[in-house]
């Protein structure tokens, strides 16, 4: 028997108790050591309740699987306001996605939340009602009765029918040229341009299968999947942290500057050494560092910028500088508005670059370059939603972007987005 089945039995026993016919918030928790090969992603995929949310921290220490919504929120601001109503429950977690525009989001208070920290797991069932916890307990019992046994995730097998880039290569060349012309005219210093690639398949694509395949090969990445219903999901494997907060302690980073990776260690090291000493990429990274520090300086204590390091991924390598500080007040809405979108996904100055993106990119970014994660009063963590895809039944939209600064070459930037998109594309197309 899987550990999740034993935990569910424990929750069902707790749920059989009587609850007050009054408003409130209540947790039912079962904690246990992991002694099997339980895969929370496969467990989610077997269920027919939505929304579903899966998230794994990039070092693998933390993992979450959330099923069903007690309450949904269209912004992180609304989610935070809800949590502030319950200071006695600082560990209540809300999970989900913030759109590229940080004032929009899709977050929810989960009915069931499986959480792993290290080798220990907790399964939480959450009750909340504005009128009667007893009534909500009955709704929770109905959800528990619909749960299905875990089944293996079938591998990807669909064949691609068509592929279309937005913009196509000639449109990209024109777009980058317009951006560098605007930079030369001092309209902004940097803009991050993106491309959407629409793949049409001969059958429905399983978001869980794509997520599982990516998780197997894309290491040092956050993995996230937000599934609104059976035919609509947003997922990705991102190397970049937006922020991590524990109490008032904050960690963020500047991940900007890119070169190809290679399966040969010596070749990859040579490429990484070039990236570490390349003027254009160093300049791009420092622009992001300076922007983050300027945004945080009035709301934080001392800002510690750590030395640069190379992050080697399967298809690309990045230049990263970590930034550590302490907030004057632990406020996740403030973190989101200060940090998103960063100069690494939008540009500098932020508003001018954002305006250029809105006027020139031929698609809506939606969740791409937004963020995915969780928040609570005690702590929060969100990754930047990069290397991501929108899955809608038989269609998959892949996203990739590149930072454009003075001297950027359109052909090289096209190759950069090809390399970035390959993190998921190679899992879908066997070429």
TrEMBL record:
Pathway: Quinol/quinone metabolism; 1,4-dihydroxy-2-naphthoate biosynthesis; 1,4-dihydroxy-2-naphthoate from chorismate: step 1/7; Quinol/quinone metabolism; menaquinone biosynthesis
Record EC number: 5.4.4.2
Matching Pfam families: Chorismate_bind
This protein's record includes keyword Transmembrane helix: no
HAMAP family linked to this entry: MenF
Catalytic activity: chorismate = isochorismate
Keyword ATP-binding (UniProt): no
Classification of source organism: Bacteria, Pseudomonadati, Pseudomonadota, Gammaproteobacteria, Enterobacterales
Known cofactor(s): Mg(2+)
Active site: 190 (proton acceptor), 240 (proton donor)
Molecular functions per Gene Ontology: isochorismate synthase activity; magnesium ion binding
Protein name per its UniProtKB record: Isochorismate synthase MenF
Keywords: Isomerase, Magnesium, Menaquinone biosynthesis, Metal-binding
């Amino acid at each position: 028997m899987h550990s999740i089945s034993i935990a569910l039995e424990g929750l069902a026993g707790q749920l059989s108790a009587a609850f007050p016919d009054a408003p409130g918030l209540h947790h039912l928790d079962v904690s246990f050591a992991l002694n099997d090969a339980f895969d929370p992603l496969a467990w989610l995929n077997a269920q027919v309740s939505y929304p579903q949310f899966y998230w794994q921290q990039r070092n693998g220490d933390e993992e979450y699987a959330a099923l069903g919504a007690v309450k949904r929120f269209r912004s992180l601001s609304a989610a935070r306001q809800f949590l502030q109503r319950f200071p006695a429950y600082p560990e209540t977690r809300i999970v989900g996605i913030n759109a590229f525009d940080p004032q929009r989001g899709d977050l929810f208070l989960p009915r069931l939340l499986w959480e792993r920290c290290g080798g220990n797991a907790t399964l939480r069932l959450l009750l909340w009602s504005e009128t009667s916890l007893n009534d909500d307990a009955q709704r929770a019992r109905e959800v528990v009765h619909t749960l299905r046994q875990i089944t293996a995730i079938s591998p990807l097998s669909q064949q691609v029918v068509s592929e279309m880039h937005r913009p196509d290569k000639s449109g990209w060349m024109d777009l980058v040229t317009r951006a560098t012309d605007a930079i030369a005219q001092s309209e902004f210093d940097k803009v991050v341009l993106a491309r959407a690639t629409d793949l049409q398949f001969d059958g429905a694509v399983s978001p869980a299968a794509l997520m599982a395949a990516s998780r197997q090969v894309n290491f040092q990445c956050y993995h996230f999947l937000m599934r609104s219903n059976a035919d609509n999901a947003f997922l990705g494997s991102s190397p970049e942290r937006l922020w991590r907060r524990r109490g008032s302690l904050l960690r963020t980073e500047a991940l900007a500057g890119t070169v190809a990776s290679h399966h040969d260690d010596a070749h990859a090291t040579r490429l990484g050494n070039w990236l570490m000493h390349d003027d254009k990429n160093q300049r791009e990274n420092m622009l992001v560092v300076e922007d983050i520090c300027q945004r945080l300086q009035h709301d934080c204590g001392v800002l510690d910028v750590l030395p640069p390091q190379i992050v080697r991924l399967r298809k690309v390598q990045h230049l990263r500088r970590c930034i550590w500080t302490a907030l004057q007040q632990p406020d996740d809405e403030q973190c989101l508005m200060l940090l998103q979108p960063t100069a690494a996904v939008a540009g500098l100055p932020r508003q001018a670059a954002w305006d250029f993106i809105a006027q020139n990119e031929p698609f809506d970014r939606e969740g791409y370059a937004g963020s995915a994660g969780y928040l609570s009063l005690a702590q929060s963590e969100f990754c930047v939603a990069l290397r991501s895809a929108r899955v809608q039944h038989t269609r998959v939209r892949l996203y990739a972007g590149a930072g454009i600064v003075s001297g950027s070459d359109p052909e090289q930037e096209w190759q950069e987005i090809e390399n970035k998109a390959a993190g998921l594309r190679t899992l879908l197309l066997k070429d």
